[in-house]
Amino acid sequence: MVKLKRYLLNPWFWLFGFLLVLVLIPFILSRFYIYLVMEILIISLFAVSTNLLLGYTGLLSFGQAAYFGIGAYTISLLLKGSHISFLSAILCSAGLSGFVAVVIGFFCIRLRAFYFAILTLSFSQMFYVIAYKWISVTGGDDGIVGIPKGSIWGLDLASTTNYYYFVLIIISICISIIYLIIKSPFGEILQAIRDNSERAEFSGLNIRNYRLASFMIAGLFAGIAGAVFAPFQSIVTPDLLHWSKSVEPLLISILGGIYTFSGPIAGSVIFVFIKEWITGYTEYWMFWYGLLLLFLIIYLPGGIMGFLTGKLKHLKWITG
Amino acid sequence: MIHLQIDNLAKSFGQLHAVDGVDLKVEQGEIRCIIGPNGAGKTTLFNLITGRLKPDTGKVFFKDEDITGLPPHKIVRKSIGRSFQVSNIYPNLTVFQNIRVAILSNKLKSWIFYRPVGKFFDENDETANILQNMNLYEEKDMLSEALSHGDRKKLELGMVIAMKPHLLLLDEPTAGMNPTETESTISLIRDIARQLGLTLMLTEHDMKVVFSLADKITVMHYGKIVSEGEPNEIRENETVRQIYLGKEN
Asked: Which fold has domain B2-245?
């Protein structure tokens, strides 16, 4: 029993098990579920990057869909309009999203709390309108269709299994990088700023620069999520940039727990499954999701992972 | 040598002259207590020195350098540290992390994003040392919001010390402490100030503490300095007695 508990408390055990399951999925599950898991992976990166802002920097951004959308549109235009390699196209999309995040962040970071939230929302709506109205480039309401998956090092990504492994690798690398950032001195400083920006400033830290850096990193990784999402869907439409899309990673993070790294990932799993499952019965799935969220916020304010890690700590307490 | 020099500093909030033409000189290595009744402008004076507020007029010089109106993070880098009346800590970080943040910042390692913070052995050792000096090592893994009031004040002091300041401003360092805590905190402050050769400015309401600690005392009233001198001079001073005891007595 003691040995089992030691395993349960070891995060590496969980990580290894989780990754093993992900690697095996194409062998066990049908195509439908492979697609579902791919969606979970992509949404996970989007949510984890948003939670770098929300949970770790204390910034509530209502505009993250803009960076996701910019990533998705950039890669779509590049893949359709040029012969650039797939990997370079992803890097370009990430770069552009990160760059736009720096420019917009520069203005937003100056404001506090809800002014910040509203300004991020306004900027992202600007990009929504651009995608909607700049028909010659973005295709307007119809969006861009038939985005190819391309190939990488001679490997054809058009096959579902291949694209699945490609997404798995990209997302794993990105989430690992964000994890490393959070565990670094820089990540600790972000959490300090979240907790008490005045004390941080009186510890010699220029908090605006750190917030801006965090905003840029979040935008960059949201851009990567968008860049792997577009070929996955093979279509991009202005909806991707709509502000209501920005709410999704926020809700997912809150559902999973914003003060844990794995919270947004757990949240994504539940979010995608609930969406899939309830839309089978009713199109008003947001209603049921809302009810679930209401219940969780009242009874498990730390989110699902916050609750579980609390329980595990309790277990540690008992075993000594 | 004059460490801190303040010339004709003033700050008003509407009709209220919170700090009204203050001149002050503090010698290096001196322990200076600022006293005065509530609303005398002590905290505002500290806010003006440390950049939390910008003065309407006047200048602040530290080591002969004009630091008037600089933002707090730049003033801190000139090695001026400060604690607050209501302790200012990072409530959701552990006690250990609270101190480590200050050390990382002081050693200019706060931008490193590619290496786990646990691998910064020097900084971690330094953090442990400070916690031991502050008698907080046992609590290192606790979230700092769970600390008692007195320990929070000590933790904040530790965070300020970790920045290795030359001038330290403490705003009511013993407010809300019981007599035992007050005594241990004051002896801690005195030891640190002596060990590191700090210049110390503090506001304090406990007169016993003030008279035992201060080299010099400045008395403020309605934003102005009304008296300044060594503890026994202040004790005998008629104006000071009137302020504290009321005019008729």
From this structure: Rossmann fold (3.40.50)
